[in-house]
Task: structure prediction
Amino acid sequence: MGSAWLICTGLNAARIAIIQPVGKGYALSYTYRLDNEFGTMASTTLSIRQATEADAEAIAQVQAETWQSTYADLLPAKAIEAQFHPRSVGFWRRMLRGPEGKFVLVADADDEVIGFVSGGPSRDPKAGFTAEIYALYVLEIWQGWGIGRALFEASRDQLDAEGHDKLMLWVLVGNLATGFYERLGGLTIAERDDQVGGAKVRERAYGWWLG
Ligand SMILES: CC(C)(COP(=O)(O)OP(=O)(O)OC[C@H]1O[C@@H](n2cnc3c(N)ncnc32)[C@H](O)[C@@H]1OP(=O)(O)O)[C@@H](O)C(=O)NCCC(=O)NCCS
Result:
């Protein structure tokens, strides 16, 4: 990944950020601009790292918050509540103790987990797509800063290094994330009907060729 400028505007503030790869991680430095005047220079370090069991609670919290902000208009409340912390903490602990071949990476900003990605072998392989990203979430306030791309690219590199040739993932049709995956070069490889929390949903699989 090359360095990039990202500008994020709010009601009376703008953040200007530069993200650059540093070793196996990424460094993010940013300036806050308030009321059209530059305030104190602030900086934080963003790293993409392997999650440990100690991250289970923070990952569950990110999942709960992003499900609420992403799926409130797409899924029944029951389905969203099922993801709520602390119910899913046990799931993530088991995942992190986890079976060979599965992984979780977190985006860590000054020791705070602000996003994560999990992946491993495909649960439903289609035409040789042996690797799958199971979940990719970035806290709403951090979205649009290149962190989703950094998590995706780190996963793609890891799966490639493990010898997979093709990567896929499933996303709800209607989720804005479809635009993100298309921007990252994903091609539609399948669609299916499914049920989430008692609601019928349409899901689309995107695929990438690794290597
Ligand atoms: C989808 C998600 C992971 C993207 O992460 P992000 O950090 O916001 O995205 P990035 O800033 O890394 O964006 C990377 C590129 O995709 C583009 N992009 C991001 N979201 C997009 C969207 N909804 N539509 C079109 N393009 C999009 C960006 O403009 C950027 O393009 P560029 O690099 O050419 O400038 C994040 O928004 C998220 O967690 N959403 C809610 C949860 C979710 O839906 N997860 C996926 C479930 S399958």
